[in-house]
Amino acid sequence: MSTTQSSIAGQLPASVGEGDVYARKAVLASTVGYALDGFDLLILGFILSAISGELGLTSSQGGALVTWTLIGAVVGGILFGWLSDLYGRVRVLNWTILLFAIFTGLCAVAQGYWDLLAYRTIAGLGLGGEFGIGMALAAEACRPEQRARMSSYVGLGWQAGVLAAALVTPVLLPVIGWRGMFAVGVLPAVVAFIIRHFIGEPKIFVENARKPRTENSFKLLVADGRTARTSLGVVILTSVQNFGYYGVMIWMPSYLSSQFGYSLTKSALWTAVTIVGMAFGIWLFGQLADRIGRRPIFLFYQLGAVITVLGYSQLSSQYALLIGGAVMGMFVNGMIGGYGALISELYPTAARATAQNVLFNIGRAVGGFGPLAVGAVAAKYSFSYAIALLASIYVLDILATLFLIPERKGAALE
């Protein structure tokens, strides 16, 4: 056994993997970490105009702050997912939190576009590891019959973070400004770091760490033709989901303000109601996927996304936009409740966190162009036209699920 493997094994408490107590702790730690991710990105969306006003940024520079945060998250996700398969889920999650906290704090003292862009990109590196490593940790900690539900709870962490950002930003931003909001963003990182101090590594990971490694975890994602096709299918699913999500959520507050005269408070209300719909969708996905299967529920949500996104583009009443946003959000983002269980069951322990982070963050990289694409189409035609076009991409999702994704509901992890 190597020094690293011995160190990992030494972190394992006697009770790890023996009951639901450890599973609850693991899910809580993963959920809080992913809440940090959502909290940070939505705050950035709300304070972009304030940042641009003080630092004299153009609209393209403001959009680049979002895009490069996501690019950093992609790189960080790939790097830290790989490191997590080598050194441990909890240990590497703590590294990501420290990196995020330091550079988010530096954002609060940025003096211009270029240093702020650098801080956001490096903070994004820390954010990138949260989703995949947390999903792997949750999946490895719980019983097979609960895997989709537990993974969906981690997905709910994002919604909790976004909802918190939507509620506190209108209250705090006028008082503490955008620099103060970045300082507030460090607080969830501190909470996540403290929680993770009290949990050890999952039993299945520790047992796997005792075995000699024979293959690179990246190669295991394309180990044979079947696995390569599966990986392609997962990339399509995550790309469509992220593209649609970021395309809608980043621009919607500005759209509601310019087209319907929504104040910041009303835009925050729309965001909060939409997020509640998304949260319900994520929760429901986990419940149904454990009972019925992963593929049928993905197909149900994908078809629902086509219908609701297309319908939403035709709405004009502010009350219809409010209710329609919740229904659309249920389908557009509810699918995130299934990725953790799906990917965990498709790949072995030696590559599980790598698979979660590589495949999801490739999707996030594609999704990073969602705000740019929606903004460009909206500028040339209209925002409603741009939203209608988004509906068509979910057809690709349906085809990928039908022909590339196998069903492994409740399968034992390898």
From TrEMBL:
Residues 26-409 form the Major facilitator superfamily (MFS) profile domain. It is a multi-pass membrane protein. PROSITE patterns: MFS (PS50850), SUGAR_TRANSPORT_2 (PS00217). Keywords: Membrane, Transmembrane, Transmembrane helix. It comes from Pigmentiphaga soli. The keyword Magnesium does not apply. SUPFAM superfamilies: MFS general substrate transporter. It is found in: Membrane. It comes from the Bacteria. This is MFS transporter. The chain crosses the membrane at residues 34-53, 65-83, 95-114, 120-141, 153-176, 182-199, 234-256, 268-286, 298-315, 321-346, 358-379, 385-405.
